[in-house]
Design brief:
4-stranded antiparallel β-sheet, about 130 residues, alpha+beta, 3-stranded antiparallel β-sheet
C-alpha cells in the first residue's frame, strides 16, 4: 500500500512540475531553432545554440512565422537573466510589452524591435517579405 501511495504522490509531483512536457524544439531555416523550455523561456536562436549572437530573439516568443529566408517573431518581453544575457536591447525594452522582430536567416541580420504591426509592415515591405503575420 505504501508503494502505491508513493507512486501516486510521485506522479502528481511530476505532473505538477511539468516533468519536461513543456520542452519544445523546432528546427527553422538556415540553422535557426525555436526553443520552448518553460512558460517564460521561449526563444529563437542560431545553431550552434548561442545567446551571444546578435541575431537571437529572447523571451518570450509568443508567435512566429517563417519561410526559407525570414523569420518574423512576436515577443512579450520578459527580463530573465537566463534569456537576455548578451541581448543588446535588454535595458531598453519594457517588461510585458509586445515587440516584433525580423531575422534574415541567410544574412544573419536581426531587424527590430518594432513596437507595433505598422512598423513591422513597413519593414516587411522594404525587404519584400510576403509572410502574413
Amino acid at each position: 500500500m505504501k508503494k502505491f501511495i508513493f507512486s501516486i504522490f510521485s506522479f502528481i509531483i511530476m505532473i505538477g512540475c511539468g516533468a519536461g512536457v513543456s520542452d519544445i524544439v523546432e528546427d527553422l531555416p538556415n540553422n535557426y531553432t525555436y526553443m520552448s523550455e518553460s512558460l517564460q523561456q521561449k526563444l529563437i536562436m542560431k545553431n550552434p545554440l548561442s545567446i551571444d549572437s546578435d541575431v537571437y530573439i529572447p523571451c518570450q516568443v509568443i508567435d512566429y512565422k517563417y519561410n526559407e529566408q525570414y523569420i518574423i517573431a512576436k515577443i512579450k518581453f520578459h527580463y530573465d537573466m537566463n534569456c537576455v544575457v548578451g541581448f543588446k536591447e535588454r535595458n531598453i525594452l519594457k517588461e510585458g510589452k509586445i515587440y516584433y522582430y525580423i531575422i534574415d536567416t541567410k544574412k544573419d541580420i536581426r531587424y527590430g524591435a518594432y513596437k507595433d504591426l505598422d512598423e513591422l509592415t513597413k519593414k516587411k515591405e522594404l525587404l519584400n517579405i510576403e509572410l502574413i503575420f
